[in-house]
Amino acid sequence: MPAVSKGDGMRGLAVFISDIRNCKSKEAEIKRINKELANIRSKFKGDKALDGYSKKKYVCKLLFIFLLGHDIDFGHMEAVNLLSSNKYTEKQIGYLFISVLVNSNSDLIRLINNAIKNDLSSRNPTFMNLALHCIANVGSREMAEAFAADVPRILVAGDTMDSVKQSAALCLLRLNRTSPDLVPMGEWTARVVHLLNDQHLGVVTAATSLITTLAQKNPDDFKTSVSLAVARLSRIVTSASTDLQDYTYYFVAAPWLSVKLLRLLQCYPPPEDAAIRGRLTECLETILNKAQEPPKSKKVQHSNAKNAVLFEAISLIIHHDSEPTLLVRACNQLGQFLQHRETNLRYLALESMCTLASSEFSHEAVKTHIDTVINALKTERDVSVRQRAVDLLYAMCDRSNAKQIVAEMLSYLETADYSIREEIVLKVAILAEKYAVDYTWYVDTILNLIRIAGDYVSEEVWYRVIQIVINRDDVQGYAAKTVFEALQAPACHENLVKVGGYILGEFGNLIAGDPRSSPLVQFNLLHSKFHLCSVPTRALLLSAYIKFINLFPEVKGTIQEVLRSDSQLRNADVELQQRAVEYLRLSCIASTDILATVLEEMPPFPERESSILAKLKRKKGPGTVPDIEENRKERNANVNGGTNHTTTTPNAKVAAAASPDLLGLGSPSPLSSTPPALPPTAASLLIDVFSENSPGAAAAAAAAAAPIAVPAAPVADDNFSSITPESLHVADSILADVQEPTDKFVCKNNGVLYENQLLQIGLKCEYRQSLGRMYVFFGNKTSTQFLSFATSVVCQEPLASQLNVHPKPVDPTVDGGAQLQQIINIECVSDFVEAAVLNIQFRYGGILQNIAVKLPITLNKFFQPTEMISQDFFQRWKQLSAPQQEVQNIFKAKHSMDTEVTKAKIIGFGVALLDGVDPNPSNFVGAGVIHTKTTQVGCLLRLEPNTQAQMYRLTLRTSRDTVSQRLCDLLSDQF
Amino acid sequence: MIGGLFIYNHKGEVLISRVYRDDIGRNAVDAFRVNVIHARQQVRSPVTNIARTSFFHVKRANIWLAAVTKQNVNAAMVFEFLYKMCDVMAAYFGKISEENIKNNFVLIYELLDEILDFGYPQNSETGALKTFITQQGIKGQHQTKEEQSQITSQVTGQIGWRREGIKYRRNELFLDVLESVNLLMSPQGQVLSAHVSGRVVMKSYLSGMPECKFGMNDKIVIDKAGKGATSDEAGKSELGGSSGKQSIAIDDCTFHQCVRLSKFDSERSISFIPPDGEYELMRYRTTKDIILPFRVIPLVREVGRTKLEVKVVIKSNFKPSLLAQKIEVRIPTPLNTSGVQVICMKGKAKYKASENAIVWKIKRMAGMKESQISAEIELLPTNDKKKWARPPISMNFEVPFAPSGLKVRYLKVFESKLNYSDHDVIKWVRYIGRSGIYETRC
């Protein structure tokens, strides 16, 4: 490539740059730049044409100024002129300017594209390269649109030079990354694959990258690349061959290409053809063998290149996961690296081993390195390597070594880096639970965990202990004893107090026999921690106290005394106060039977997936751990005991607590599921008690119901006892919004559909046969603008197939006081029952508002009235005499039985009102045809009012039973 | 209260760092450098909040002074202190420059220890400071014990700003009224905003402990006195004013610490025992009835996309006997200017590409005169569709009267112990009006 020769250097540019570098302050720099800009402007404006050199020089200066962070708004034209120069340096600067400063300015883009096209079609390889680089550097959609067809052609053309091919491959890769939809796949794809056999290293390497990217998108098109890649790889790796042996980098043959080929192979499963497979295995073995050979050079580059190939080979082995011998060899190789001097190697080895541990073939092999890994955990200086070691320990853990690993992790936890403590805590908790054979060990472990790293123990962890203790009878006594002992330490973590309060409250009776842990001692121990705790913990402790009253009637007096004290009854925190008041009254008023029922032992929790695991996944983000977990589940359920041991069981409460945002919606379910079955008398009695005492009694039954659940469910109630009434109320009102308005539109076509403080929705509809058009008017009742206003119509199955609703798009903003019109086109395909729902969403004052309204599109809207005489009517009436064709409804009048109003309603319903058909003049008779896209349904109706009884009898006969029923339902509601 | 004070050079290197409180860590120094001095976007706000720490900065030439605090301090106080700090430094070693600060860093630390105590500003009166913080070494100080104790009693005493026993052969007094007038005017000549901020600076060389009384044509005082027959006094105060206006309305004012505020509050009279040497007696601001010394009439015509014609007329609007000086009109040019031709009747005009403006300078101009400049600006067509924003035309000048209309009515000196009277004191009064931000939109 021609380089910028000395004589071609631009002195003016050099002087300018050194001037700027010498500027003492920012102001001075700006002054110098302004001066230069004025100079360039006057030069560009000047009458005499500039020669190529000075044009290039000034464009260069502009580029430099732009790169310093100043705006450039001229000179584009001069740069484009440079593109058509024949001198390499001028062309190069032109392209540089374009690729740095291009914007979607239409007239210039066309000129630029033209220049690029010229260069692409020139036979000069350097010019073609410049053009390709420009396309790749800009990489915009416009570029992709203009050249997506040309670049592949250049890539596969037979007479293209190697260097151009290389650039074309990279350019195509870039276009494919930025706008994949614009790059056409075609016959060139097959020919690209054959570039893997090219003699030029650059071309092969670039093509491999391109093929890897393309193969990830459509693996089927590039399947043939596998055999080629394997062949190429084997030619490079096996020293017997001389392929590309010129390209050795510190004694490693073409390391970059090898790595890329190995990556490409990772896009595909192991090759099915035995020959290819054998060849690949041979290659991988050779790579592994080479790792064993003594290094050919002491230089770090040699070992880096060698290891890069090796690690990529190992990832391919792990990816294929089919050759046990290879996997074990890879594992051994990694084991060697675990003790390597190089920190990066240790890190990579640990990381790869993590994935290896999940393979059934190599799991055992990985386990042999446990001591090394534990040692790494203890002695490693680099925190990121330690983190990997923890991951690996977690991955290699199974029943046989769980105790050892958990113990090691616990001991590491004391010195662990603060950033990874929470994760280790979660991992320990999960492993302890998963592989616990002996649940006393589990309880010990978790209590230890809370003692060592209480601050990092998340809520989920201690919820989980409690769930397990409650669900397993055999550990309850032991848990109570251990917790009691742990609480005797002078300084306990708050989480320990929570666990202790809960467990003693439930199972304190199991250890009450021992005089050292008599009820009073238990209570005093808990209460000694009370004042040091935060409000939620105190609330939990209060619940534990009321449970004590139930368990040990002998301490009732002491506890009541505590509850009665001012610090409880008049606590500033409303939750504590309420609990104290309610518990005190409960303990005073209720008989022991009621107490025993209300404060019954917690029922076992239903079994579900561990929330801790979910939390760990969340914490890690998509990537490492979930993959391992999923892989493991997929491949080998038995190795890590993954599936056979799903005692992982959170309950409704933990789920609720873990996702408080769901509470607003899901509140009814936890409420109904948590309280133990209360005898109705007790419940009503309790409500009386509360309405007498609790300050919030006005909140009525819902509020009273929550506190009843409290004693039984102290874990969860913290979160929702106060929320429930409102959220229920809110849910009601929204439902009402959706339900109400459709009825009044059955017999009329315009009016106000919905209205609140912000928005009014008006309607106007027209229907003709099976088609309808609805004009919806959204009126902004406020003075501020609605932002991001959007509407959508939801038709649920089966409605979606019965009715086509097409809303036209609307403006995203509605000005204050303004009205917005939306047209909705409707087509009735067949008869239907449900109503479509219009969802409106907008931002008012920063708050997202959501309104759902049922659209009053009812079946009767597609009526065409039919006039007929009495004789015809009765003839048809008789034809429709099959029992399912007639629907009759007798109902009480809801409105006054005015004849004119009734007539209007029937006409509004859509049928023709036939006078003088029925012998009784007070009866109404109507006829019409419902038009749907598929069929037409004839319909006759008869309405017989009985003014004395204030009753109606409505009879409908249509040729379809569903239609009859629907129309009858619709019309009955109107009278 | 101020937690610390840093001084940086233009590169952001720390020259002086003094931390007064423990809540300011070492990293605060870097935080300011990274977020303000080296910020990508120029920081315009003088107050910056970084990680719950407030940085107040002022810039003098290439030097940054930054005060740091974690508390909710009175920002005006902090800036007042920073300005005072600049004054003090200027009084000790002249211009504030990197060189001077490096040469005097011991002195600066000494000063910082004296004028800020645990972040609370202390006596920052240069005259008083100079008595006990000197630039000579310990050996050069030939202070007796008495002198030292005298300094202590003076600094800690009631009148900390003046020592006793000052004697002058000639009792002299200089009084400067310095004003800067700010204006924003629409192209049609409508005043959009205008105010004058002024200072009364005194230099006194008086013997003993004189008691002074300062009087000006403050509206409230004049109106009060208007009932009594004080026309003679009012007549005396006509020291060459141009308008017949009797009094001015002062919007707000602040005084030097020597002024007795209780007396000002009750009688609106300004009485004080002056410090020795130069000091700023008061600062004030007025917004009503401002005399605008110049009127700028711009005329901009865009001829096609590539040409612009500008004509600017300036009119002086004060007594013909007075002379304005150092007049400079700055006409901004569009960013795509490729050439400029200027013709002016008076003074010199030049297109300064580095500042994107035509600068027109006139040395002197008498009152009630008029002058004009016309320029043709050639433009380069650009890709940018956005129009030129037309920044306002700004102007600089100096006039020998007070644009606010302020007049000094009297300054009386009483010294009961020494035998000189008000008549023996030689008094000099001078008015200087300068332009602040004096802009006319075009």
Quick overview of this protein structure:
The complex is a heterodimer of chains A (about 1000) and B (about 450). Chain A is of the alpha+beta class.
What report would you give on this structure?
The complex is a heterodimer of chains A (975) and B (442). Chain A has 975 residues and is of the alpha+beta class. Chain A is 57% helix and 11% strand. Chain A has 46 helices and 16 strands. In chain A, the strands form four sheets. In chain A, strands 11, 12, 13, 14, 15 and 16 form a six-stranded antiparallel β-sheet that branches. In chain A, helix 28 (519-530) runs antiparallel to helix 29 (535-551). The longest helix of chain A is centred in the N-terminal third of the chain and has 21 residues, at 300-320. Chain A is extended, with a radius of gyration of 40 Å. Mean pLDDT of chain A is 77; it is low at 1-6 and 622-740. By secondary structure, chain B is an alpha+beta fold. Chain B has three domains: 4-132, Beta-Lactamase; 172-225 and 247-290 and 402-440, Sandwich (Immunoglobulin-like); 294-399, Immunoglobulin-like (Sandwich). Chain B has helices at 27-37, 75-93, 98-103, 105-115, 126-132, 145-156, 219-225, 231-236, 261-267; strands at residues 4-8, 14-19, 47-50, 53-60, 63-69, 116-117, 120-121, 172-185, 191-205, 211-216, 252-255, 270-272, 277-286, 294-303, 307-316, 323-332, 337-344, 348-352, 357-366, 370-379, 393-399, 408-414, 426-440. Chain B has a nine-stranded mixed β-sheet, with no helix packed on it. The longest helix of chain B has 19 residues, at 75-93. At the A-B interface, helix 2 of A face strand 17 of B. Chain B: Residues 170-441 form the MHD domain.
Secondary-structure map:
The complex is a heterodimer of chains A (975) and B (442).
Chain A: H1 11-21, H2 26-45, H3 52-67, H4 76-83, H5 88-101, H6 106-121, H7 125-138, H8 141-147, H9 150-156, H10 162-178, H11 188-193, H12 201-217, H13 225-237, E1 248-249, E2 252-253, H14 255-265, H15 274-292, H16 300-320, H17 324-337, H18 343-356, H19 363-367, H20 370-379, H21 383-396, H22 402-413, H23 418-434, H24 439-453, H25 459-471, H26 473-487, H27 494-507, H28 519-530, H29 535-551, H30 556-564, H31 566-569, H32 574-589, H33 592-598, H34 611-620, H35 624-635, H36 652-658, H37 663-666, H38 668-673, H39 680-693, H40 700-712, H41 714-720, H42 724-739, E3 750-755, E4 759-768, E5 771-780, E6 787-794, H43 799-802, E7 803-807, E8 819-828, E9 837-844, E10 847-854, E11 863-865, H44 870-879, E12 886-892, H45 899-909, E13 912-913, E14 924-931, E15 936-946, E16 951-958, H46 961-972
Antiparallel strand pairs in A: 1-2, 3-4, 4-5, 5-8, 6-9, 7-8, 9-10, 11-14, 12-16, 13-14, 14-15, 15-16
Helix pairs in contact in A: 1-2, 1-3, 2-3, 3-4, 3-5, 4-5, 4-6, 5-7, 6-7, 7-10, 9-10, 10-12, 12-14, 13-14, 13-15, 14-16, 15-16, 15-17, 16-18, 17-18, 18-21, 20-21, 22-23, 22-24, 23-24, 23-34, 24-26, 25-27, 26-27, 27-29, 28-29, 29-32, 30-32, 32-39, 36-41, 39-40, 40-41
Chain B: E1 4-8, E2 14-19, H1 27-37, E3 47-50, E4 53-60, E5 63-69, H2 75-93, H3 98-103, H4 105-115, E6 116-117, E7 120-121, H5 126-132, H6 145-156, E8 172-185, E9 191-205, E10 211-216, H7 219-225, H8 231-236, E11 252-255, H9 261-267, E12 270-272, E13 277-286, E14 294-303, E15 307-316, E16 323-332, E17 337-344, E18 348-352, E19 357-366, E20 370-379, E21 393-399, E22 408-414, E23 426-440
Parallel strand pairs in B: 8-23
Antiparallel strand pairs in B: 1-2, 1-5, 3-4, 4-5, 6-7, 8-9, 9-13, 10-12, 10-22, 11-13, 14-15, 15-20, 16-19, 16-21, 17-20, 18-19, 21-23
Biased composition (Low complexity) (chain A): 637-651
Protein name (chain A): AP-2 complex subunit alpha
Membrane topology (chain A): Peripheral membrane protein
